[in-house]
Specification:
Blueprint: E1 3-7, H1 11-24, E2 29-33, H2 36-45, E3 50-53, H3 62-72, E4 78-82, H4 86-95, E5 100-103, H5 108-119, E6 124-125, H6 127-138, H7 151-161, H8 166-173, H9 177-191, H10 196-205
Helix pairs in contact: 1-5, 7-9, 7-10, 8-9
Length: about 210
């Protein structure tokens, strides 16, 4: 029996994905997780053939969740299904170990196609993303400033851009104010910016926010 775990904090999304995949895999057993804690509980207590993972969930970064799942279960394939544009998160997700990346606006047929390919041991990216990756390899593409950030720095950038203070970010990530301040200083230096307002403007202009 095929076992598929759907991890997303929105019940309506989990239901929709389950209904789409159930038509193609009628004998599959589906599980659901609404946050990082539930994802880890599921992978430690049950065997899964595929995880459909949103990278924007309450609490911990979805990229952190992706890395930890791959560390704990290296052979477990993960398809990232995200609201974020491919050019913002796809490469980070694939580098973190995802077997594929799809935007939530993807047609149902492409979701099924991606699941089939990944379950068969392959990787899946959309045609547009494949073309972009190929172009990046062939050309000397100038990286946008945020692409030079580590995943944690990128996460902190997005949180600053959404208006959170250093203290709020520290509480949400279970890190000290000093640590978050260090991340902020690194981000400003790497991106050649001076203030939170500069970071917020950049995040908005480049559609990095939820």
């Amino acid at each position: 029996m095929l076992n598929i775990l759907i991890a997303d904090d929105h019940a309506v999304v989990r239901c929709g994905v389950r209904d789409i995949l159930a038509e193609e895999f009628p004998s599959a057993r589906f599980g659901e997780a609404a946050n990082a804690g539930e994802v880890f509980r599921e992978i430690w207590t049950k065997d899964w053939d595929l995880i459909i993972l949103d990278i924007t969930m309450p609490g911990r970064s979805g990229l952190d969740v992706l890395r930890e799942v791959k560390s704990a279960r290296p052979g477990l394939p993960i398809l990232v299904l995200s609201m974020h544009p491919e050019d913002q998160f796809a490469k980070r997700s694939l580098k973190a170990g995802a077997s594929g990346y799809l935007n939530k606006e993807t047609a149902a047929e492409e979701l099924v196609q991606a699941a089939k390919k990944i379950l068969a041991g392959g990787r899946y990216v959309s045609r547009s993303l494949a073309e972009r990756l190929a172009f990046d390899l062939e050309a000397k593409v100038t990286e946008l400033p945020h692409e030079a950030l580590s995943d944690r720095e990128f996460q902190v950038l997005r949180m600053i851009g959404s208006g959170r203070t250093v203290s709020q970010i520290g509480r949400e990530l279970s890190l000290s104010v000093k640590t978050i301040s260090t991340y902020r200083a690194r981000i400003l230096r790497k991106m050649d910016m001076k203030t939170n307002a500069d970071l917020t403007r950049y995040a908005v202009e480049n559609k990095l926010l939820d």
